[in-house]
Amino acid sequence: MASDILVVDDEADIRELVAGILEDEGHETRTASNSDMALQAIADRAPRLIFLDIWLQGSRLDGLDMLDAIKAQHPEIPVVMISGHGNIETAVSAIRRGAYDYIEKPFKADRLVLVAERALETSKLKREILELRRRSSDSAELIGKSQPMNQLRQTIDRVAPTNSRVMILGSSGSGKEMVARAIHAASSRAKGPFVVLNAAAITPERMEIELFGTDTPPGVERKIGALEEAHNGVLYLDEIGDMPRETQNKILRVLTDQTFERVGGTKKVKVDVRIISSTAQNLESLIAEGSFREDLFHRLAVVPIMVPPLAERRADIPMLIEAFMKQIGEQTGIKPKALSPEALAVLQSSDWPGNIRQLRNNIERLMILSRQDDSDHISADMLPREVSDMLPRTPSQSDGRILALPLRDAREVFEKEYLVAQINRFGGNISRTAEFVGMERSALHRKLKSLGI
Ligand SMILES: Nc1ncnc2c1ncn2[C@@H]1O[C@H](COP(=O)(O)OP(=O)(O)OP(=O)(O)O)[C@@H](O)[C@H]1O
């Protein structure tokens, strides 16, 4: 994986040797011959790893002081010391002061590569652990075989390898972030970071610090912004419609020249980041009322992707339920129970305004509530009230009209509503509807025609 590595040594041949070996391994390197150049390079863009000479001759700071300065501002960047033969003890004390490891001159290329890979791997794992904690143990796989889901997968496969900016549209909980992660995973940036910034969860005052980071005087810990964090990877801007207008102007500038200034700083920071944004809001009306910049919209939505609401892919519900039961079972130790056909029909017919997130929450609640129950399956009457409240009310149910009709007409009204609901439940698939309702396909077609459906 290409990582941005900084090599700091006063001897030009050592600098070039280290950089050359790392470049042969596919890394991106920068070099600095003294402490000030090194601090400048770190300030330009935080590297993923630093090789640092212990004896920095002719520098304002020596290696150990440099180490302290780096650790004070960037405790997360691993630093590997380059030590001469006579100063192993200093190298060991550097490790006590926070260095990741050291290599001893003269070193073999293999050893250098190994230490670099290990340091990068460790810091990547640390980032991933943080990320995993944040996401608990949800699966990363997009579940569903309905036609809208298959189309969505095709779109993801098509846009992932390009570097185009994608805007993901869809209602809350429909899986926008999962789609963004799928694009990242299938792109050439898969091994780079995936950084999330949720505009709806950050106050306008904090937004620029989170996005651009801060520039602080030496010795004061610096906040690395999401853009810098996402270098060589993807920045996912969630709920972009909530981005303050002032920040929108700055983002537009980042998109034009891929550089930005940190809060409190004047230096230009250069990054290579693919931006994927998302919104559950109607951006067109935000543009019309002047709270979202139209030119920013066009730059971010080079490829718009629509994630359909769950109600438009009910056919996926049984598969989603099965997968969630398995996941939740593994997380909580509760053994999944089978659902009765009635319970499944109710779950599949409900409207799910909160989409997949709401379905998952209800399955979790259901599993917890039915844990103590003696029966080996979950029946419709055990479903949380929230679920039955979401069942679409048919007109005859809601206005009592059916009671005013003779049996023949009432039956017709019922048949119509029943069949419309079943067709909906099976995503418009007539064969599957016919199979479920127990009719021949051709007989169902005739019936639908006679009822005017
Ligand atoms: N196709 C899918 N297969 C499996 N799980 C899914 C799928 N889509 C979404 N989920 C799950 O549903 C939940 C909500 O998904 P996600 O956070 O991606 O939605 P979102 O549209 O980004 O939500 P928000 O608008 O609130 O940011 C997550 O737990 C996610 O794992």
TrEMBL record:
GO biological process, one term: regulation of DNA-templated transcription
Domain Sigma-54 factor interaction residues, every copy: 142-368
Modified residue annotations for 4-aspartylphosphate: D53
Residue ranges annotated for the Response regulatory domain, each copy included: 4-120
UniProt cross-references to Gene3D superfamilies, sorted A to Z: 1.10.8.60, 3.40.50.2300, Homeodomain-like (1.10.10.60), P-loop containing nucleotide triphosphate hydrolases (3.40.50.300)
Pfam families, per database record: AAA_lid_14, HTH_8, Response_reg, Sigma54_activat
UniProt keyword terms in alphabetical order: Activator, ATP-binding, Nucleotide-binding, Phosphoprotein, Transcription, Transcription regulation, Two-component regulatory system
Superkingdom of source: Bacteria
GO MF annotation terms: ATP binding; sequence-specific DNA binding
CDD domains per the UniProt record, alphabetical: AAA, REC_NtrX-like
Protein name in the entry: ATPase AAA
Organism: Aureimonas ureilytica
